[in-house]
Amino acid sequence: MNQHPRAFTVSVVWTLLLLYLGSVVHATESSLACPDWPTCFGTMVPEMSGGVFWEHLHRLVAGGLLLMWILATWLAHKETRDRPWIFRTCLAGVALLLVQSLFGGLTVLYQLPDLISTTHLSLAFLFLALATVLASYAGWSQGGEPLPADVAMGVRRWGVLAATLVFIQSVLGGLVRHMDAGMACPDAPLCLGALIPPLDNSLIVVHFLHRLLGVLAAVMVIGLATWALRAHAPSVVRSWASWAAVLALVQVALGFVSVLTALAVVPVSVHTLVAASLLVVLMHVATLGWAGAPTGDSPGPHEPPASD
């Protein structure tokens, strides 16, 4: 029995945990609890108390994810020789994790610059999307009924568009976090008492754009679920699209709760976790459009277009 699908799934769950811990680290103001990198106060086994607990735990989980993904890559190399694109994608994931770790170190060494910190988070979301595609294609999508050609194309189109929008929204949310713009609009659902606030400083602009894009992303995801129902897509597509719509609504609500609780640790951290979970669901939906496409409909990720 092949083990690489299981390793991919563990990596996806591990990445979700890592993103959640990263949000807790920031929400508890523990990002610089370890002032050096890769050690913490010059050692790999610091006293795990206060902010050091969260920051060093985050580092340990990140290191564990890298080891887990290297194992997944090795298993894929052994078990998918007939689909070399899987191994190549795994190698791209290893590179992503290494670069992401480097940006994590730079974040500490340069004391939390906005762009470096946001890039660190963005690379984590990008790796999550990559790992989800592999987990979905190798395991989650297997054994399902083939999709009609028009439905497969629609699933791919809607899924990719919605996932892209959620990814951009998550990156913008990271910028809001690292610019400390989370309370630039201290009320919700209005912003400074208006639908469109005075956009007279960068903090308000970034915060308001994050809210606006969040609503647009929710509308897009609900549109995906509505389309799946109206197109009479197979039950697996309808189910996952419906879950995406539920997560999108929960995500919007958590955004408002985060503001109304003055960025309390729990709602802020869960807000990040739900955003990441929504990206996972949407990437799985998009992958269903390839994995479940009828033969000859369009090239899948493992089938390059035929050349003359």
List keywords for this structure.
0% strand, flat, single chain, 8 helices, 308 residues, mainly alpha
Structure description:
The chain is mostly helical and about 300 residues long. It contains 8 helices and no strands. It starts with a helix and ends in a 17-residue tail after the last helix. About 40% of the residues are buried.
Outline the secondary-structure elements.
Blueprint: H1 4-27, H2 51-79, H3 84-109, H4 114-140, H5 149-178, H6 202-230, H7 235-260, H8 265-291
Helix pairs in contact: 1-2, 1-4, 1-8, 2-3, 3-4, 4-5, 4-8, 5-6, 5-8, 6-7, 7-8
Mean pLDDT: 91
The backbone outline, from C-alpha atoms, is: flat
Count of alpha and pi helical runs: 8
Strand content: under 5%
Order of helices and strands: HHHHHHHH
Unreliable sequence segments:
295-308
Biggest sheet architecture: none
The assigned structural class equals mainly alpha
Helix fraction bin: over 70%
Q: In whole angstroms, how far apart are the ends?
A: 38 Å
Radius of gyration: 20 Å
- The count of β-strands is 0
Structure summarized in a few sentences:
With 308 residues, this protein is mostly helical. The protein is 71% helix and 0% strand. The radius of gyration is 20 Å and the shape is flat.
